[in-house]
Amino acid sequence: MRRMAGVSLCALLVTFCVVSGSVGDRPRVRAAPVAARVAAHGDDCFSGALSDGGARVTHPADRADLDRGQVVAMLADLRRTLLDRFGTSDERDLDTALRRARSVVVPVRFHVVHSGSLGRVSEASARRQISTLNAAYGGRTGGVDTRLRFRLVSYDSFDQPAWFDNPHRYEAPMKRRLRKGGRGTLNIFTAAVGTDVLGYSTFPQQFRKNPRMDGVVIDYRSVPRGQYKSFNRGYTAVHEIGHWLGLLHTFEGGCVPPGDGVADTPYEAAPAEGCPHFRDTCPGRGADPVHNFMDYAHDACMREFTAGQGRRIRASWAAYRSR
Predict the structure, then answer these.
(1) What letter would DSSP give residue 256?
(2) Domains held by the chain: number
(3) Above pLDDT 70, what percent of the chain?
(4) Which of 48, 69, 210, 220 maximizes the CB count within 10 A of its CB?
């Protein structure tokens, strides 16, 4: 979850079992250690964090947190679905069996919700966002090629001030009205999310129960060349779409297994803040993945997905989003 400098925030996650099925994240300020958030069940406020402007602020309460049981349930559902559909839950074996000569191309429907001229993201900006997605997921920013590509198939804009000002409150009617396509179509909505968060998403496991709520919502100021200092390279969308494709945060569960369930993202005790060059907050092999797109660092610090995350994306796509 993210806010503008000088405004308080804390990481926001909506649990796997919530009806809306959204997960919001990426703080602009220091997030409370994961262990503390899990112990508090997401109900406590965390104070004493520094905003980008240096002011002392108090974090509002989390809406909810993914606890270990929910993470375990999501990972078990993925394994069970893969076994039922393909006869194996081993992601390496599945990757070999389903390997395609060409990448999976994800159709994108880009919906701009605005209030008059405020928040009216241009089609050119939408195309820059798609280019950013293709660079990040194609490995051109420094990580692996996940073998997913994104293609803009439609762009539209809607002058709806209430939806624009409060996309959390109006998420359901906004998505029911604007969302198009099936399980494999990515719907991106832009609005003024940043009063509380800069983006939130649904997980692929949730599509079958609530398909009309599927999609990703990002703040219009987080697109490439947007107005949010430190968060205007378009990586909020990269991060949230990671959730839409089945990835969890690299710091999920802190130092406690199963973490994010991906073997090559080392455990991380708490989210990264700012742009650290190196951290090692958990025992065991590997330093914190502070440059990973599924962490909370500034956009300038993010650059990679891992090979394991690529396999997880492709396995989740096969399980939940392929036709």
Answers:
(1) S
(2) 1
(3) 79
(4) 220
